[in-house]
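Async update (no meeting this week)

Hi team, since we skipped the sync, here's where things stand on the single-chain job. The sequence we agreed to prioritize is pasted below, unchanged from the tracker. I ran it this morning and attached the output directly underneath so nobody has to dig for it. Comments welcome in thread, and please keep replies under the output.
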Amino acid sequence: MELRQLQYFVKVARKQHVTQAAEELHVAQSAVSRQIHQLEEELGVQLFIQKGRNLQLTSVGRLFLDRVESILADLERAKSEIHEFLNPEAGEIRIGFPHSLGIYLLPTVVAEFRKDHPNVKFRLRQGTYNSLIRDVMKGEIDLAFISPFPEKHEHVSGELLLQEELYAILPQSHVLSQHQSIRLEQLKDDSFVMFSEEYSLRSIVFEACAKAGFVPQIGFEGEETDTIRGLVAAGMGVSLLPEMALTEISQLQPAKVRVIEPQVTRSVGLIQRTGERIPLVAEVFRRFLLDFFRDRKLT
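Output:
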């Protein structure tokens, strides 16, 4: 069975006429008839019956048409994907990110990249640490911003982009809210607003509190930085958040105070599936990101 036979079959099925199908295909009528006949012989079924001057699909012909149209559509999509894979100016970048990087970092780098690559499309997927690694491993996304950066992983690898400082955020009415800096142990008696267990920022805060000699008292939990900030600003407790998650100004604004003992940071990296070539457009974006963050380290 050849691709040409399937294409001729679909055209005849749509036109219900061999001559009209041949005209649109720009081939001789005999060539179309011969290919249809060979296809029927190979399948061992009759795909068409004559009805007046037209051809009509048999019941098995209609079933076969549904399958063939699906196959041809998949082939067209595959051709399009290959074109996008090889063309960095007309492709799609599938990238994942944690919520805390979607507030400032992701919009910034995408906007900067699109200045020189305006036709590139982005498909974005927000997720937790584990879900982002899983999506990269399954090939559902090409790249992912991730924090903390996994230094050693069997299935994903990449580059460390930056180390970001975490700040204490406090209600404006808090006794320490006007301080330039604090020691983390000064918050040991406060109630903490924490991320849920699947979020990596939760473990970073717990580890920092352990270094400061206490276990944080959890008053509230949330799944997004906006929720954490809002609850803290409303007086529900204190927390630690990355600097990039504090760039947005809102009506309910917590106080931002540097933590000097211990200094709390998180690593942010970019990962892809180990040993697998990503689409060229994604590779161009990956190189752009490495240059983007390298330049900022030098300035």
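Quick observations from my side:
The chain has a mean pLDDT of 90.
Residues 173 and 235 are 8 Å apart (CA to CA).
Reply here if anything looks off.
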